Amino acid sequence: MTLLDGTSIALAPLLPWVFLAPLFAVALAVLALAVFRRARGVWLRALAVAVLALALINPSLVQEKREPIKDVAVVVLDASPSQNIGDRRVRAEAELERLTERLKAFDDLELRVVRAGDAASGASAINETHLFDALNRAMADVPRRRMAGAVLITDGQVHDVPENLARLAEAGPVHALLTGDRDEGDRRLAIVQAPAYGLVGKPVELTIRVDDMPGRQSPDAAVTLRQDGGPPRTIRVPVGRDFHMELPVNHGGQNVLEMEVEAARQELTLANNRTAVVVNGVRDRLRVLLVSGEPHAGERTWRNLLKADPSVDLVHFTILRPPEKQDGTPIRELSLIAFPIRELFEIKLDEFDLIIFDRYRRRGVLPQMYLENIAEYVQKGGALLEASGQGYATPLSLFRTPLGQVMPAEPTGQAIDRPFKPTVTEVGRRHPVTAGLPGDRPDGEPAWGRWFHQVEVVPGNGAVVMNGADDRPLLILDRVGKGRVAQLASDQMWLWSRGFEGGGPQAELLRRLAHWLMKEPELEENDLRAHVDGNRITVERRSLEPDPRSVTLTTPSDESRTLEMTEDRTGRASTTVIAGEPGIYRITDGERTALAVVGAVNPPELADVRSTGDRLSRVAGETGGGVHWISDTESGVRPGIDVRRTRPDRPQTGDGWIGLRANGDFTVTGVSEVPLLPVGAVLALALGALLLAWRREGR
């Protein structure tokens, strides 16, 4: 039985109750019989029995020495990007300072402050605001009986509200102090549907939507579009309805479409007025035209390499019988079907993604007009690869045809016939086609096999990325008009594919050559790119010449900062930055521009940036907390949000105040026990009562 806090009466019977109970029953029966007979001295006998019974029960006074344990209160500060809107962050910091000062005045309270939703907490902080994860981590080591409650300083846009609040309610009231203003309005641009991939040369369909919140402010809005950093164009989009549009996929790799809607009459932020769609362009089928000037040992190498890729449609023909060859073979036995030269080189030439001339020389098979078509095809954006054989060093060279105007190197008329190992030049180690080729050793001889033939050429344009015998140009890459040309001054790559002297990286080299010729963004030699991993942006610049320039990064909030780049020996300069908010980041070095889209296409953090108490009202209701607007205290409606320590059975919130539960928990450091009935006193009292009863009965 408890008398006061820390004081109670404890019973320690001298005999087990199984013996005491019958004994007490007999004593009571005897007393009842005496009362029934109206015997003298019955009350004195009852007093003696009661004293003896108490002595047998052995009551004692127990007093505990208690040490109070402080309750724990957790304050979670929302540091997510939406808190940067207006005065929210200033209000939040001021309220945190005021709340901290007020709570530290309570001696029985331990305060824990947690910041949640900032960029340092991971990628989820960019897309969503997770306050309850932070709250659970802060009170993970605290027993629920010690929790006084929690206070969330936020704009109310919280995305991890738990469905089951029973466990949270055991930890005390959860209060929300809202940092925004009542009746806010905003406009946003959202991507409703967008594919991740598209076929190069074919448009993909997008669905976008412009919403005015809380209501429709205008029937339509102007949306500015900019694809891959190109010139802007403007379209009108209805407000409050889905709008369908097409995005042309112009090239392989990332096709980025930036969109920005004009500001409305009410705007909290322009960060959600901008968005971007990234569609990865893939080629349905790679159409390659391979023209072999004559049969030779390496012809099958080209064919096998190209046919090994199931995405390649190869058209290959070899000139077996040039016009000047005369023999007695009947015409009807030479061919069943005439070769479609006109169809390939005039009608359907633009349908090919890559044209390869392998050991070709002029023999009158392809008229000059068709070679002019190929040169024009390159100027308009086509890709040409020429592997020089013996004929390139003769007057029958392709350089002496209209194709000479797009060839990067001129033959000297000399051929080199002696063993050599192809080597990557210093420029080649910076070019993505040859940088890091398997077997290349910058400080020694490459670990691949030798070649034995090379045509001597003098480069006029382009970049020499590989040298051959006597450090003469072997592989030259050049841009011509809108197209690209690669020239290999040897026809002996087949030695690598046959494994001669260990072979070489012919498959990797040809793959890179083909993709560079077809303008794959990943193989651009002078380029500025940005890669996003969660909330980490890696900026990378490739250049054939050392470039010490820094880059400028512009955030979705139009804040700019300068980033210094660190360059390595392969021509790559890179730097990494942590994104503090979702949206489109623009990086430029003054010449080139790259875009980085951080976060989801429609991040919940920017879906609705209006401050609201709707998301937290259920939490506050089920835990006994309250939702209060900090702005009300600024307007003079209330002097300030007061903080009180309340009993668990009392209300935890009210008009203008919040309560933190006072649990009164403690630890027992010692116990003292004092018998209530000393043995001597009990015996004297019981004996005295019996003597008085005997004397009374004897009269």
UniProtKB/TrEMBL annotation:
State if Coiled coil is listed as a keyword: yes
Sorted keywords for this record are:
Coiled coil, Membrane, Transmembrane, Transmembrane helix
- Transmembrane stretches, start-end: 14-35, 42-62, 676-694
Q: Where is this region: Disordered?
A: 543-572
What name does this protein carry?
Answer: Glutamine amidotransferase domain-containing protein
Here the segments flagged for biased composition (Basic and acidic residues) are 558-571
Q: Using the record for this protein, list the coiled-coil segments as residue ranges, or answer none.
A: 82-109
Entry-linked InterPro entries: Class_I_gatase-like
